[in-house]
Batch of 2 targets.
Target 1
Amino acid sequence: MKLVPVLSAHWDEKDSFTIQAYTRHDGYKASQKALAMEPDALIQLVKDSGLRGRGGAGFPTGMKWGFIPQGDNKEHYLVVNADESEPGTCKDTPLMMANPHVLIEGCIIAAHAIRAKTAFIYIRGELTHVVRRVNQAIEDAYKAGHLGKGIEIILHVGAGAYICGEETALLDSLEGFRGQPRLRPPFPAIAGLYGMPTVVNNVESIASVPAIVLHGAEWYQSMGTEKSKGTTMYSLSGHVKNPGQFEAPLGITLRELLELAGGVREGHRLKFWTPGGSSTPIFTDAHLDIPLDYEGVAAAGSMLGTKALQIFDETTSIIRAVLRWTEFYKHESCGKCTPCREGTWWLVQILRDLDAGVGTEEDLNKLLDICDNIAGRSFCALADGAVAPIISSLKYFRQEYLDQLANKGPLFDPDESTLFAPAKVGA
Amino acid sequence: MTTTEILEMITVVIDGFEVSVPKGTLVIRAAEQLGIQIPRFCDHPLLEPVGACRQCLVDIEINGRAFPKPQASCTIPVEPGMIIKTQLTSDVADKAQKGVMELLLINHPLDCPVCDKGGECPLQNQAMSTGRSESRFSGTKRSFEKPVSISSQVLLDRERCVLCARCTRFSDQIASDPFITLNERGALQQVGIYENAPFKSYFSGNTVQICPVGALTGTSYRFRARPFDLVSTPSACEHCASGCDMRTDVRRGKTLRRLAGDDASVNEEWNCDKGRWAFKYVTAIDRLKHPLVRNDAGVLVEASWPEALAVAAQGLKANASAVLVGGRATYEDAYGYSKFARIALNTNDIDFRSRLSSDEEREFLASHVVGSTTTYRDIDRADHVLLVGFEPEEESPIVFLRLNKQSRKRALKVTAIASKLSIGVEKLKGDFVKTAPGQEAIAITRQVLSAKSVILVGERACESAGALSAVAALADTTGAKIAWIPRRAGERGALQAGAIAHLLPGARLVSDVAAREDIAAFWGVDSLPSTPGRSSDEIIAAVHSGAIGALVVGGVDPLDGAHIPESLAALEKAFVVALEIAPSEVTMRADVVLPVAAITEKSGSFLNWEGRARSFDAAVLDSLNRSDLRILSMIAQEMGAAINFSTVTAAAREIATLGTWDGARASMTPVSAPDMPVLAAHEFILNSWRRLLDLGTLQKGEENLAGTARQTIAVISPKRAQIMEVVDGDLLKISTAQGSVTLAALVEDIHDDAIWAPRNSRGSQLLVHLGVGHGAVVRVTKI
Amino acid sequence: MAYSIDELARMDSIIKRYPRSRSAIMPLLHYVQSLAGYVNNEGIELIAQLLSLEAAEVSAVASFYTQYKRTPVGEYHVGVCTNTLCAVMGGDAIFAGLKEHLGVENDGVTSDGKVSLEHIECNAACDYAPVVMANWEFYDNQTVQSAKDLVDSMRTANPIPPTRGPDTLVTWKEASAVLAGINDGKAHEGIQAGAPTLLGLKISKEEKR
């Protein structure tokens, strides 16, 4: 069985987002169990489960919790990163829409484990209905007595800034500043929110915890691969017949997922795809059988990231795709450091020319050299993400760039790529 | 300090050279120790590291483990076993730096030829050292409207900005004036103000100085000079007693700008906007060029130097004479006046306090201030700082910055005994002990201090009877240190020089025979006058009584003092020899007027509030004007009582040789506080101080600076406002028997019995119009 | 100041949510936006006063985040995702179509004040591409025509309801209040998930069967 719905197990029930539905399926039993446990035992349990951060970096969640100093007489904070903004990523949003209570229960358990009295959920601001659902769920959890007895949850709504998904930028934003990344060290585990020890976890990571508490570490680590345990949400989008969310043990391949999704759009073939959002170097049809776990994707030269599998078929111009992503990074660069701020400004201009078929082969080398001056030279990882599509596209599709230059104009008709392309034919 | 601090040293290797630096030192500064200059923009040793510009990237490995990426050397402290390779030995670091430089320049305008910073620009210089000779950027540059004025004195050119955030970090971290911020984001990120709130910080000029490009420039200096045409002279600030190290830049005999100098123990690298920009008074005012002598018709006419000196000498010899010297005299000049009074005039009637003063203060200065050794370092180490009659941000801005540094760094406890909660004390998060004007002594007595505490006493404390006695008692019982912080730059020096009735130079008491003999011998005279001298108020009274017939007056503004009408009448009555740079209330009443050098035209020194010498050379070299000291020496010569000062240097040497007296010290007779007056319904007790930017003489001619002065308002408490049905902006008329001022009301945190108004601001010159400054009962009506 | 006692009390309660008051800047900005339709100077100055900050510090924060508008937007603010995936899937065509249809450019507002248009970045609904947002509610799988119909419905009487959202589309101001953390009681409205969200679950259940 390729798919194992755990997080998504009951999303198909119409009232899945209510506390009634959640309790119907053992909701808040895990927190009850956890609160009776020693915090250290909980941390050990999560360590044993092998759960790794689902926000992109894949850092072991239990280890992150374990970094919080013990008995330091300071406030500790749990901050949930629900600022889902990485292009292609669309897993936390449906989760919070369909089952916000699992996140709340996860917060209660995690807060207890790290000895925090307050947890914050930082949701990106462009999700009115998700904010409603989570806010209502928090209210209902208070009414039901799950919150307010030692653990508080504060909902904080962002206002449009991709960089706030970077954990230290998120903390600055939460403190009421411009969301620009902080110098590290100190790391959030030592001096995070308000200078206090803080754990920042992704929504999916926290939401995975109740099931682990309920069913045990052994159960969780029985799924997945050697170093990538458990199940996770894979999000297929783009030129596939049936896009959507697929919860599966780590290590499934795109070939398998594509089969489940009905394959690439009728009459077309896979050209390139992102394994984990736009910041992860792209793959091609040569990478269909790579196990989609942290190690497998890394070994193939990319990153598992957020498992945002954006699928593009042969009608898509790689240059147009890369230009759009680059424009995104330019728009979202926070402005703090030179390479990212100025570099994305420049990259966009070069790519616009290339997209218009203007330039020479020398410009491709210049492009790569500028990328080299940006990647690893910037303050945070945003700029590394910004150059990933450029470098990887030149690795796999250099000839297309050259063809476009030779053609002195776009090689592709954008209308052919659209969802409504067939309707457009002859229109 | 008696204890030696033991610093843990860490040894690292940079470009193959070993260097040992204290733990915590940043890599970029460890490299400086070896003379290795790593290019940088956002880095500033006095600001928190930010790592924003990425210009200072270097390769680092620790114990054989290399960082995968080049690191910003301005954010990483050294660690044992670190091997650092800068651009000099690492191709990766070199390429990283060149890459960042190229990126910094893609949006930078090519307007160096018309940029004020050109020639002294870190970007220009480092682009030469670290940049490519030709840009690979052929796209569209970012453009902004240029320049925009963010205050009357600072212009912002956003196109030139490299977003290093030095200015915004300074304003926030150092001045606690976050009026400029980074706005927008990404490539559109830009420095700016909130649209309705200009950059009205007293410290805004520092942002111009630390801007590593030409983004922030001073309005007054715009397009005035190229740096390479300027002649720079180290100088000291004459505006207050903080004692800032300065640099004065002159082109063709004219001062074009002044910059804060570096002195880690005093002003670090900062100064205030008054010190930076208020220098035009030297040229703005109508300088006296020739001696003037009053003729038989009673008219001042030009005279030759020999004639004027002769008339002066004659008049002084014919009368019992006294000396009034303003608080802005240099240490050497004050010493000259002191010696001149004792030898040429044979009197102890001399007072540098050309302002409100008291006998209690005179005793306090002699017993607790002269020779005192309290310093900025004591503030740095204090457990508690008590402010008495002192508003640091307005009256000694660098003291404010130092307090603010400690407040931010370690939450230094600051307590202000005052009637009104000031903006500065609020920024210091100080405890505000709300006190009715005149009742300060009682509040002081209640303070709990330790031997590690410091009491900062402003010169205004003398306006509240008993306050200085209470300070002295508090210090005596707790061991707390006292620092007396006058407003004027020369007062501490004048005190040390004995330009006051009961003290001779070097803390020697006039009443102490041994001390008198010591000085007499040193000066080579038989004896010194032993009659106790008069204070400035007593000197004025003595002129009226006929006991004094002549006055030597140097650098005094009678409008700064109490009893203005009496003072002016005394100047009319007495034979007056005035030493001045420009026509004034004194010179127009003088019999002989002798032009003297302005501060930029002479060398000398000030003693700041710590008693630390702040010496300076003449910035304008070709001036024919002579210092007060030199002219006094010529008058004395003419009088046949030589004081022998050929040069300022000679005087400075003499002072140094003299040293401080280790004999008897003065004691203090405590004065008790007055009873609280009973106030009628419309009566208030006046509280005031001078703001940093106001109508002060030395700020003349600099309108851009004046444009950032704080609003002139009268402050009353919410309770009184309610009773009087006053809201913000209503006009309040404050009156005394002498006159009145009318000001817009501001309802704020102030003692219910008090009303506060600025002492010498536009529309609010209290000493002139009300004849009182502090503690007087005034009548207030809403109009 | 034109704020009512209720509004000031609301702002006070927002500040009290947080351990440190400055954290309330963002919800307060959403809140003043819900009152004025945009972040006006009165709002910035009031927030500065309430939080003991300089107005410059508040406006610096406001200008960092794209959702805070410093000039009025329409009653319905329409965002068309033109990040790569949505753009390729039709977002570019939709955005171009709407610009032409409404006669406005990016960030423009129709003359009746009903609709404003903005191209937006990825909004976490890629499996529903191409996506259009209105007052930050989801309109999934849009076409040029459906998007035109949507804005037309906004300019007439009843806006077409969101695909995954409340039963009726709330106004920009009402949505801003929700983002300020104020519960409008509509959380239970609308579907719990769209078909793509449930696809994997559905397949898995079919496999079991």
Note: Chain C touches chain B at residues 41, 44-45, 53-60, 63-64 (CB under 8 Å).
Target 2
Amino acid sequence: MDEMQLPNAEQLLAELTGRIRPDVETTTALVGIHTGGVWLSQRLHQDLKLSLPLGALDVSFYRDDFDQIGLHPQVKPSDIPFKVEGSHIILIDDVLYTGRTIRAAINELFDYGRPASVRLAALVDRGGRELPIVAQYVGATLDLPSDKMLALEKSDNGKLSLSLYDKRRDNE
Amino acid sequence: MNNPQLNKNGELQHLLTTEGLSAAILLNILDTAESFVGVTERDVKKVPLLRGKSIFNLFFEPSTRTRTTFEIAAKRLSADVVNLNIAVSSQSKGETLLDTVNNLSAMHADMFVVRHSQSGAAHLIARHVRPEIHVINAGDGRHAHPTQGLLDVFTIRRYKPDFRNLRVAIVGDILHSRVARSQIHALTTLGVPEVRVIAPKTLLPSKVERLGVHVYHEMEHGLKDVDVLMMLRLQSERMLSARLPSTEEYFKYYGLTQERLALAKRDAIVLHPGPMNRGVEIDSAVADGKQSVILPQVTFGIAVRMAVMSILAGN
């Protein structure tokens, strides 16, 4: 792995929180995408003092690569504890890349109801989109080689950090 | 030993029996089913996972509940389902089992769900089909009914999540029961320390202790301090010879009444795979009572079958 200076995830989260804050209303609901997006959404939900309960999505049942790689081995239950119909939802993900996860998340969300609007917040936008998807709130934009995988990690004391890995050819 | 259920990567290719499957594979099915319970509680009870896949329900033996829950599970995964009630179709015209399967494979089947009165029928089909086709055993003779065993274990885990101190009693016609065998293998693999079987000698297979169970012949002893009671149906249509004097007498000695249930722990739960013979193996007051989880079993059965189908289709 080459030495590359990655931004501080805690600092990015603080900036992301600041960008979302002016748009928060009583009808705003956060939905985190497993796993990194859920960590971020828990912190955002607390800091932004939202009244609607926090949602979480595991998009495994909606992914477009099921025929290539099968079912993800550790699917977590999705949980949307508020009425989707008419709500203004902000999807939270850690790293925005191809956009395929977000496509799957939007599809899943609509199986719960018809939201009034859906926006997207990502801690890092690393480019490389394969679908027409854009984030309204971004912590930082990074240009990374395509053979690298950027991952959000959480330590035992709850602190978030970013790490870079070599992408494995065989998709696990 | 070569397990015909696993592919060369050790992943589940077919589900034929719970026997010989690792705890990791069983737990993966149960955990995945947990996520599908959420799906079945939404407005849109459907995910696009198996869109474009064709699943054939091959029922060589009559069944309403199992066939229906497999059908609903497949539909909620967005697969196309074809139900074949073969007891009344081509086999009665003389076609062999494998010819039937060959014809359906030529229609581009992706998965077969097989119910057959002969033990080993699903194994035979699994060995015969092309490697991209998956087979689920929905009950073969006296041998196995793995999705029923898994949904029972799933139901138990929902109410009694800690298996390490659990005492489970399986009551009734163990001899003819493929359900009991699948339950026993799943429970012991997942670490339940004490599984009891309670039945008259005539309804127990010989050397049943080899499955790792404790044998009781009297409800009064066997039910003492159990956490889970798994009742079995008295399979009267399978009884070739008279193994019991009468169903009334069976109820007198082995029927689950409120009085007998009181011998178990106060928070014990009661399961039954259905269809129930009220007044034969279970009293209505128990079947409809507070400790009964018989209807949740049916609901969870759909989520468990969705999990099995999606794990197989992805391997």
Note: Chain B has a mean pLDDT of 93.
